[in-house]
Design goal:
Number of helices: 6
CATH class of the largest domain: Mainly Beta
Strand content: 15-25%
Structural class: alpha+beta
CATH topology of the largest domain: OB fold (Dihydrolipoamide Acetyltransferase, E2P)
Strand order of the largest sheet: 1-2-3-6-5
Helix content: 25-40%
Shape: globular
Protein name: TNase-like domain-containing protein
Keywords: Activator, Endonuclease, Hydrolase, Nuclease, Signal
Order of helices and strands: HEEEEHEEHEHEEHEHE
Largest sheet: 5 strands, mixed, barrel
CATH architecture of the largest domain: Beta Barrel
Distance between the termini: 84 Å
Pfam families: Ada_Zn_binding, SNase
Number of domains: 2
GO molecular function, one term: endonuclease activity
InterPro entries: Ada-like_dom_sf, Ada_DNA_repair_Zn-bd, SNase_OB-fold_sf, Staphylococal_nuclease_OB-fold
């Protein structure tokens, strides 16, 4: 009888092992392990596109693109920004239903709890760079996540030179100069209270809005320079 009991334990252990293996395989196929603890280069399936810079993975996690800011789409009672719908549509064309590769930077979550990642297509192109080069998003780095800052800013310069998308829209009323913050990589109108609070060692003066944008500084959301 003892051999029979031992055989039962072996079969039971094998059964549990098989079930565990199947569970792991199912989790992998469903996109599990796409969180910030996953290794760089983790591939995940996109199930929803919210706008030009935010997506949802099959795991249910939300991902905010690093280094760019796309115009807002209309939601609730707030109207959308110019080209917000176009940016969301283009983002949907690029990633919806596809398996993309996520690349982390130094900080992996934003203040809203969303994952922060550079998103790469199967053909090796970075989604952030595509959207910026097509004029459907601005370069907008949030230090310390600046691993691909140079590539994204270069794409913005090309879009500005070609007057594509956002760069074909009428610019805001110009100022005599603008205040930039080296630490936050934001620039402000001279009367903006956030710009005036910039410490002297972090302050940089721009003679034009275009100069600030060409250097990769992002417009302040309050004063909208």
């Amino acid at each position: 009888m003892r051999p029979f009991r031992g055989h039962s334990r072996i079969r039971g252990g094998g059964l549990y092992g098989c079930l565990a293996a199947l569970a792991l395989a199912a989790a992998f196929l469903c996109g599990a392990g796409c969180g910030p603890e996953a290794p760089a280069g983790q591939e995940c399936r996109v199930t929803w596109v919210y706008d030009g810079d935010t997506i949802r993975l099959r795991t249910g996690e939300h991902v905010r693109y690093i280094g760019i800011d796309a115009p807002e789409v209309a939601h609730d009672d707030r109207p959308g920004d110019p080209l917000g719908t176009e940016a969301a549509r283009r983002n949907r064309e690029l990633v919806a239903g596809k398996t993309v590769r996520l690349e982390w930077d130094r900080e992996r979550h934003d203040v809203h709890g969303r994952l922060l990642a550079y998103v790469w297509l199967p053909d090796g192109r970075m989604v952030e760079e595509i959207l910026v080069e097509e004029g459907l998003a601005r370069a907008c780095a949030v230090p310390p996540n600046t691993a691909h800052f140079d590539e994204i800013v270069a794409a913005q310069r090309r879009a500005m030179a070609a007057r594509r998308g956002l760069w074909a829209l009428p610019p805001p009323v110009p100022e005599r100069f603008y205040i930039g913050n080296r630490r936050s990589l934001r620039f402000h109108r001279p009367d903006c209270r956030y710009g005036r609070r910039t410490r002297r060692e972090n302050r940089v003066r721009f003679e034009s809005r275009e100069e600030a944008l060409r250097q990769g500084y992002c417009p302040c959301r309050r004063c909208r320079p």
